[in-house]
Amino acid sequence: MGLSLISSGRIYRWLRLLHLYGGLLVSPFLVVFAVSAILLNHPSLQSSPAEPARRQASIDVPGGLKGLNLAKEVMRQTGVTGEIDFFSEQAQGPRISVPVSRPSVKITITADLTAKTANISTRPATFGERAIYLHKYPGPHVANIRGNWVFTRLWGVLADGTVYLLLFVTVTGIYIWYIVKSERKRGLAFLGAGCVVFAVVLLALIR
Fold first, then answer.
1. pLDDT tens string 126-136
2. Which DSSP string do the residues of 11-47 spell out, in sequence order?
3. Complete edge-to-edge strand list for the sheet that includes strand 83-84
4. Domains of the chain: which residue ranges?
5. In 3D, which of 113, 112, 124, 159 has the Cα closest to residue 138?
6. For 54-87, how does the pLDDT look when each residue is reduced to its tens digit (9 = 90+)?
């Protein structure tokens, strides 16, 4: 029995520490998702976008390329990096348009493969657009080209990790609350309120 108590005490202390520092670790990501959710729901809070800068570049794309490989080659030759938003797998020219995003900019490459020229339009993203980019990406846009930029894939890993860590913090929070007997009554009230809200949302989703 004594060993059991010691073991339980150790588990409690470790979970409490992991709960505390896990919550601190995940908090910056939650701020990003919370602020971007507000901006998504209230577009009027966003500032007006700036005018894009334009430039032209020479390109010489090898024949036979199409789809994502074609878009990546055009990007490489024009010095553009970022996540390709959407692009037809069958596209092969002679005129193509490649929309590219990074958190800080929105880029559109309009290329004429026959004339071997490309026009690049680059517009700085507003604060709201940057936050929303991080909220939505690498989201369920065209599945075959999703995560074609390395930093988008990295952000996707961090976003998934945030969700898993938040679930862990939630479960350990319930466990810690249950262990502290003096908090059980007040905790039950808040837990009950949360369950009611969850039930209302669930009914709205399944009806």
1. 999 999 998 88
2. HHHHHHHHHHHHHHHHHHHHHHHHHHHHHHH-GGGSP
3. 53-58, 117-124, 105-112, 95-102, 83-84
4. 2-43+158-180, 49-125
5. 159
6. 999 999 999 889 888 999 999 999 999 999 988 8
Q: Is 92 helix (H, G, I), strand (E, B) or coil?
A: coil
Using alpha carbons, list the distances in angstroms from residue 71 to 29, 108, 155, 172. Answer: 31, 11, 22, 46
> Are 144 and 102 a contacting pair, CB within 8 Å?
no
The encoded tokens of residue 152 equal: 């988008």
> Residue 97 has which token pair?
């348009």
**Closest to 145 in 3D by CA, of 73, 76, 79, 83:** 83
Token pair recorded at residue 80: 């553009």
C-alpha distances out from residue 8 to 17, 128, 165, Å: 14, 46, 22
Between CA 180 and CA 184 the distance in angstroms is 7
Rama region for 59: left / alpha / beta (φ>0; ψ in -120 to 50; rest): beta
pTM above 0.85, yes or no: no
